[in-house]
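re the bet — no i am not wrong, look at it urself. input seq straight from the record:
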Amino acid sequence: MKINLNKPDYEEMYKVGNVIKDFDDILYLVVKDVNRGYALIDLTDNEVSLISETLEGLRERAGDKDDVLVHAEINVL
């Protein structure tokens, strides 16, 4: 896995497909859920950690100025 960290405005980070590292160094994937809106998937345990009807709601509930956008490349063998 290749990982690069970037620190744009945290409001711009919360988009589908982005991987975000929080202040506890936990990685989350932003996903679209057809039935429930948007969610954060904790990549440590592959569990849904937060659900919101909108991306803005997800950002408001989970976003923090210390969040970091992660450019990750995952290779499945």
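see?? The mean pLDDT is 84. told u. also The chain has one domain: 2-73. so pay up
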